[in-house]
Amino acid sequence: MTRATPPPLQPIGPRSYDSEMPNASRMYDYYLGGAMNFTADRELAERAKTVLPCTPSLARLNRSWLRRVVNVCLDEGIDQFLDLGSGIPTVGNVHEIVQRSNPDGRVMYVDYDATAVTHARKLLKGNENAGILHADIRDPQTVLHAPEVRSLLDFTRPVGLLMVGILLYVGEEYDPAGLVATYRDACVPGSLLPISVITTQIVAEHDPMTHKQILDLIAVYNDASEQIHPWTVDDLRSWFTGMDLLEPGITILPEWRPDGSLESDNDSEARLLGIGGMGRVRGPVTEAPA
Question: Which segments show compositional bias classed as Pro residues (predicted)?
């Protein structure tokens, strides 16, 4: 019996403009009501909403979770952030949350989509404490050693390393556990690492109809430039090796330190689809050298 040839791995590296191929980052922007998307993105996003009507709610829940984890990092004394897979700039960007609390707070975004990078650069023009790197998060050595990153962030001090909603686009063939470990090892003890992903595990047990719909959504994304890879609670927990989970551990997104926002989305079918947690890098926290 002849073995089928496996499909080639998606190339790693920054992407140029392609308005014809639907892009997950631009589709996410569309779900959130943004305007930085093309016809192909909107058409596939509408197909996604047809099979899973609560898709926009899921996007909003993840965006709300991003805001909450950034505020927790700020409360823990973190004043510099590396946002991996940041996507299209929209309302409530990380640098806006950070610099509202601490005008000297620093944020480096990373995204491989040219649309996201171009609009972020326009938005960040004149902001000396925020920037964006056009790079692929699956190439951590390039990201971590980029001059733009090293000039803005001080890795001898704790960092907020944001992996919010990005690893759902990273398949097992790219070793997401290894990626998390590489980025974790670049951060000193006391750094905080929030990760959120999509799961089919919980909804399969409690809501069979929405479970079928999320499987249909995953199939729709086969026509996008990025595919969706759902993960289990145990997968996510394993990525926090070398870290201590902050309370309340790994939960569905609406139950992770809720603040009363997005009440209708919190009760929608989307509530069981996203999970997240935040880890603190272990070890004694030391002050940066003078």
Answer: 1-11
pLDDT digits (tens, 9 = 90+) for 129-153: 999 999 999 999 999 999 999 999 9
- pLDDT of 16 reads 57
Instruction: Note the pTM of the prediction, 2 decimals.
Output: 0.91
Per-residue pLDDT reduced to its tens digit, 35-74: 889 999 999 999 999 999 999 999 999 999 999 999 999 9
Q: Which 3-state string (H, E, C) describes the chain? A: CCCCCCCCCCCCCCCCCCCCCCCHHHHHHHHCCCCCCCHHHHHHHHHHHHHCCCHHHHHHHHHHHHHHHHHHHHHCCCCEEEEECCCCCCCCCHHHHHHHHCCCCEEEEEECCHHHHHHHHHHHCCCCCEEEEECCCCCHHHHHHCHHHHHHCCCCCCCEEEEECCHHHCCHHHCHHHHHHHHHHCCCCCCEEEEEEECCHHHHHHCHHHHHHHHHHHHHHHHCCCCCCCCCHHHHHHHCCCEEECCCCCEEHHHCCCCCCCHHHHCCHHHHCEEEEEEEECCCCCCCCC
The CATH number of the domain covering residues in 24-281 = 3.40.50.150
278 Cβ neighbours under 8 A, 6+ residues apart? 69, 72, 192, 193, 194, 195, 245, 246
Domain ranges within the chain, ordered by starting residue: 24-281
What is the rounded distance in angstroms from the CA atom of residue 24 to the CA atom of residue 272? 21
For residue 81, give the nearest of 103, 46, 107 by alpha carbon: 107
Q: Is 270 exposed, middle or buried (0-12, 13-18, 19+ CB in 10 A)?
A: buried
Strands 243-245 and 274-281 turn out to be antiparallel
